[in-house]
Amino acid sequence: MLKKLFLLLLLIFSSTSFCKYFVFDEANIIPINEEQILEKIIWEWNQQSGHQLAVVSVKSLQGMSIEEFASKRFSNLGIGSKSKDDGILFLIAPSEKQLRIEVGYGLEAYLPDGLVGEIRDKYITPYFKQNDFVSGILFGTQAIILYEAKNEGIALPQIQSGQLPETGMVPKHSRADMITGFFIVLVIIFLLKRFPTLRGFLIASLLYNMGGSNRSGSFGNFGGGFGGFGGGMSGGGGASGRW
Amino acid sequence: MNKNIFIVLGIFIGVILLSFMFYINTYNGLVQMDESVKSAWAQVENQMQRRFDLIPNLVDTVKGYAAHEKDIFTNIAESRAKLSGAGTVKDKIDASNSMNSALSRLLVVVENYPDLKANTNFTRLMDELAGSENRLSVERMRYNEQVKLFNQKIRTFPTVMIANKMNFEKKDFFTVPEIAKEVPKVNFTK
Question: Are B164 and B30 in contact (CB under 8 A)?
């Protein structure tokens, strides 16, 4: 029984943890659930616009200034396409208490430094000051993406239909998701206990549902959509900050 | 006798052909490198211009709060005029450096005006300015890399022979005096 339960849990969780393209959490400050939300938000924007954003947290800046580090990491990763340089790097260095949002050449028109600085002050540093990295990163990423899309005139139907993030939105979402997931697991356990004959059917329908939602959902098509970063460069645009 | 003449002639023509090819190759290579230095410099100038355009806005905003700091404003105006009057690469580098010091003096003054620091418009402009400085330093680094490659090339043998004949000259590095290197940082935490 326990073994089967474990298997079921594994199935449920694996259904939500597939892609790992844009988030590089080297400092280990983003829980896996939120990392997935991030991946999905960026993925959605990437599919609509073709631009790329990397969220990178690092353990140390190795004695460099954050600007220097960001510019190096940007070109090492090659965020954005080579011809358009349309990448963004969101770099967080928790131990140095510094962050930088570096904008590639191609997106400077849509994300001027002043705007990036405002996003930093409104959606990121207030949370970072309270050591709430997850909220800052989630809100910040959303704000960057939504402002970029708005300024370029790209519709992002999956991400709050163009609304800018409001305080408390994303964490609530993820909490609600978690609670729902928890209840589903409880119900399944209960059903499995009460009606052993249902097991096969339940597992089959679960599998089918997951497959179905993956196919119809906008994030389902992971297989061939993203071919890695494209060798984009940045010219030092964006904004840095401390908290 | 006849045979020998042909051999000598052959060698002679061969040497001429080879050295001609070498000449063309080197010359084209130098022209290409010269162009990369120029395009890197164009990027530097872009960023200088960007900062140049930003300054009137910044000065206006600061004036609203600190109109009596006249020295600073004349300083900035002068360095701005210097940049627009600069013709050669060297002059532009000098003008840009003097603008650096004028701006960092402005930022020191700003520290005394908490109201100004709290102004959203000003915060935005400061971010723009910081971005401009950072862009300038990135492009400066890329330009210097190109200059280094070029200068190395024209001074190594055998390129040096052709470079001298064709008037390829050493390019100036964009160096920043130690004092100006400190990118002015404004602390907005109250």
Answer: no
Distance CA B65, CA B79 (A): 22
Which tokens belong to A147? 């402002």
- Non-local (6+) Cβ contacts of A12 within 8 A are A181, A184, A185, A206
A17 sits in which H/E element: none
Residues of A in contact with B123 (CB under 8 A): 114, 117-118, 121
Sheet holding A23-25, edge to edge: A23-25, A52-57, A87-93, A98-104, A234-242
Cβ contact A53:A88 at 8 Å: yes
Which of A118, A121, A237 has its CB closest to that of B131? A237
CA dist list (Å): B180 to B52, B94, B97, B130, B132: 17, 11, 7, 14, 15
What's the Cα-to-Cα distance from B165 to each of B15, B27, B149, rounded to whole Å?
20, 10, 19
Q: Does B135 touch chain A (CB under 8 A)?
A: yes
pLDDT tens digits, B107-119: 888 888 888 888 8
CA atoms within 13 Å, Cβ hemisphere of A188: 23
Q: Report the alpha-carbon distance of residue A235 to residue B132 in Å, rounded.
A: 10
Question: Which of B61, B133, B134, B188 to mutate: most A Cβ within 10 Å?
Answer: B134
- For residues B92 and B99, give the distance between their C-alpha atoms in angstroms, rounded to a whole number: 10
What tokens were used for B41? 């410099």
Name every residue in A having a CB less than 8 A away from some CB of B. Answer: 67, 71, 112-118, 121, 234-240, 242
Backbone angles phi, psi at A231, to 5 degrees: 90, 30
Taking an 8 Å cut-off on Cβ atoms, the answer to whether A114 and B137 are in contact is: no
Helix (H) or strand (E) holding B111: none
Q: Where are the beta strands (DSSP E) in chain A?
A: 23-25, 52-57, 87-93, 98-104, 234-242
- Mutation for B interface: A65, A66, A113, A122, most B CBs within 10 A: A113
pTM: 0.70
* B70-118 pLDDT, tens digit each: 888 888 888 888 888 888 888 888 888 888 888 888 888 888 888 888 8
**Complex prediction ipTM:** 0.71
Nearest of A169, A128, A152, A206 to residue A41 by alpha carbon: A169
**In this structure, how many other beta carbons lie within 10 angstroms of the beta carbon of residue A189?**
15
**Interface contact flag, B125 A114, Cβ < 8 Å:** yes
